[in-house]
Write a structure and sequence with these properties.
heterodimer, A: about 350 residues, MetI-like fold, 2 domains, 14 helices, B: mainly alpha, two-stranded antiparallel sheet, 2 strands
């Protein structure tokens, strides 16, 4: 404030001086240096007070940094700048705080999973191996996952696709509104509830046993709304001029949809379906209720219990021995890798085949 | 009405008899089949939803009528034998508490990360980060569960001892020396799990904030925080709410991560840090293998309660968004 009043006095004095209009700022290197000081102090306090958890060290550092910046800035730059700095440091801390656990998750999975992951692990089932013994593999789980997810996609993709076409191309009036609403509701169904539904109908009432197909039906319920939503978005991106041009040439509406609308948006639709597949691949709860898990290879998804990758991770964790923990991490690594590759490929397709919107 | 664009087209003078007969009064058979198929799929979706509600209710009625204790207030889960006594009090408490903790941690942090990506980070870093966050949203929950049980739990004991030292007098943060397999740990893990999805939705919204508003604020001499507070956050509020509700829905229904981390008990403890408690989904997963048919019905009854709760949460979110949309005008 004082600099401002000085300046006005000078100006009113009639001598226009090239004074700097800038207010006092902290030099650019202040935040990093402060961060280093805070980190040093945090580690110092942690060591001095004998705090064994690194989480505490991090929290102390974060608090020191946030309040240090605020106090320094309030003293030098004034209240508004101090608030701005406070927000900046809070945002940075939030980011760092969140990145640490997420990075640790990936790091732990890779570091612990790589130990037993080899060709043998991928090509053998558990067989009759005792749970506490090292060895065994996940072939039966990979096979089960692929079959269940494949069946679920066969059920969910056509229904989801056609529903989206109905909503975008035909949907007017009450029915379309109701469908839209319930698609949203369906998106929020917890996976275990979908599992319980199939359990009550398929196993408790109709009397079938556990099978990969039962799991696939529950997965399909989870997949449908995701497919509908993403396909709907993609169909809406198709410019209306294309539809009108085709219709004006006398092409029937259904052929317009099949030959003009769908090919234009096929990239985005594929992406949506693949992302939905990636999502259901990691679902454990319905598989736990409906497929039960097995130790040996069962290639028939319509009869008897099967294994699946996420369920395998869970069951190996339950065994609670070192060997089974290793297997759980390795299977988790395979699962993450599978899901990530699906995601990357899907996003690649989306970028490659992005529809050129008319706007 | 649906095919009005077709049937209303007047037959052109040049059209042959063949054409005229098609584009005349009747709809083309191909169109009728296709419309039937797509409308049928929409109806199939509705039927599935109705069936879920109906069958879950039916089995739940069977279970609750066989329950010898009050289904809503009993602090026990014993669904076998001749005198089955079970209730959802503990589960409802645990589900709500762990989700609230998760939301309290995740939403501010997620909004922070979203702002970081949209307004603070260097541009190159920002686009990579957005991509990575989207990928992290796809990590299966069982992997979070495994990580939580084998990595997070041992690392939290120190922090909990600390909380006990300074905040133990509140009663909520009392902590004995057990493993940190408590509702609070579940809350932290759920927060980490829903971070990516909440972040990714909020970031989308923040990026759509009108550039003109931001530039106007900057031109008036606002600091970056003032720009965000005055033009980005008001614009993104409904987006943040819907993102949070999406996250809340996931946290409420999360099964495997809770089942691996929590050491369950049918008591409502005073302390959040001590092991014990349970959630709907976790209870279903861990009690399922030893349940007979009636026991499964009892679990289905608790699943129905979870279903209703998530429906209410999602409905509330949609209402909020719909109301915001009406007068914000910016989304148009």
């Amino acid at each position: 404030m004082s600099t401002l009043t000085d300046r006005t006095q000078v100006a009113s004095g009639g001598t226009p001086l090239p004074v700097s209009l800038k207010q006092a700022r902290l030099p650019r290197w202040t935040p990093p240096v402060l961060a280093l000081v805070a980190a040093g102090a945090g580690c110092g306090i942690g060591l001095g007070a004998g705090l064994d958890s690194k989480i505490q060290w991090g929290l102390i550092t974060a608090l020191l940094y946030i309040f240090g910046t605020y106090a320094l800035s309030a003293a030098v730059e004034g209240g508004r700048q101090a608030k701005d700095r406070l927000a900046t440091s809070l945002v940075w801390t939030a980011f760092l705080l969140a990145v640490i656990p997420l990075a640790s998750l990936l790091w732990e999975t890779v570091a612990r999973g790589i130990k037993v992951l080899d060709g043998y692990f991928l090509s053998h089932s558990m067989g009759t191996l005792p749970d506490a013994m090292p060895g065994g593999g996940i072939y039966h789980a990979i096979l089960g996952t692929l079959e269940q997810v494949g069946l679920a996609t066969l059920i969910a993709a056509p229904i989801g696709l056609l529903t989206a076409i109905y909503l975008v191309e035909y949907g007017r009036g009450k029915l379309a509104k109701t469908v839209t609403f319930f698609v949203d509701v369906m998106t929020g169904i917890p996976s275990i509830v979908a599992g319980l539904f199939i359990l009550s109908v398929w196993i408790l009432i109709l009397g079938f046993g556990p099978s990969g197909f039962a799991g696939a039906m529950a997965l399909a319920i989870l997949m449908m709304p995701v497919v509908v939503r993403s396909t709907e978005e993609m169909l809406k991106l198709v410019p209306n001029e294309l539809r009108e041009a085709s219709l004006a040439l006398g092409v029937p509406k259904w052929r317009t949809i099949l030959k003009v609308v769908l090919p234009t948006s096929i990239g985005g639709i594929t992406t949506g379906v693949m992302l939905a597949v990636a999502r259901i691949t990691g679902e454990t709860a319905p598989v736990l209720l409906l497929v039960w898990g097995a130790k040996t290879i069962n290639s028939n998804p319509f009869e008897d219990a099967q294994q699946s990758l996420p369920l395998y991770v869970f069951q190996q964790w339950q065994q609670g021995s070192e060997a089974s923990y290793d297997r759980a991490w390795a299977a988790a690594l395979v699962l993450i890798a599978f899901v990530m590759i699906l995601n990357l490929v899907a996003r690649g397709i989306a970028r490659w085949k992005a529809p050129k919107s008319g706007r | 009405m649906n095919s009005s664009s077709l049937s209303d087209t007047p037959p052109t003078p040049a059209s042959t008899d063949n054409f005229a007969s098609i584009s005349g009064k009747s709809v083309r058979p191909g169109d009728r089949i296709f419309l039937g198929l797509s409308r049928g799929s929409g109806i199939a979706l509705l039927v599935i939803m109705a069936a879920i509600a109906a069958f879950l209710t039916y089995r739940s009625v069977l279970a609750i009528s066989g329950d010898k204790a009050n289904f809503f207030t009993t602090l026990d889960w014993n669904a076998t034998g001749t005198e089955p006594k079970f209730g959802i009090a503990v589960l409802a408490f645990g589900t709500v508490v762990s989700s609230v903790i998760a939301m309290a941690i995740a939403v501010p942090v997620a909004v922070g990360i979203a702002l970081f990506i949209s307004h603070y980070a260097p541009r190159k870093l920002a686009s990579t980060l957005g991509y990575v966050i989207d990928l992290l949203a796809a990590v299966p929950s069982i992997v979070y569960g495994l990580w939580g049980a084998l990595f997070l739990v041992p690392h939290l004991t120190g922090l909990y001892g600390w909380l006990d030292d300074y905040l133990g007098w509140t009663g909520i943060f009392e902590y004995g020396d057990g493993a940190a397999r408590s509702l609070f740990t579940v809350g932290i893990l759920l927060a980490i799990m829903i971070l990516p999805i909440v972040t990714s939705v909020s970031r989308e919204v923040f990026l759509q904030a009108p550039k003109m508003h931001e530039e106007a604020a900057l031109a008036l001499g606002a600091t970056r925080w003032e720009v965000i507070r005055m033009s980005v956050l008001p614009f993104g509020r409904s987006g943040i709410i819907s993102a949070s509700m999406l996250g809340l829905g996931r946290a409420l229904g999360e099964t495997m991560a809770v089942a691996t981390v929590l050491s369950p008990s049918f008591l409502i403890g005073k302390s959040l840090l001590d092991p014990g408690g349970g959630t709907f989904a976790q209870n279903i997963a861990s009690k399922f293998s030893e349940a007979d048919e009636f026991g499964q019905d009892a679990l289905i009854a608790s699943g129905l309660v979870l279903f209703v709760i998530t429906l209410l949460v999602n409905g509330a979110a949609r209402l909020i968004i719909a109301r915001r949309k009406e007068y914000s005008g910016a989304a148009a």
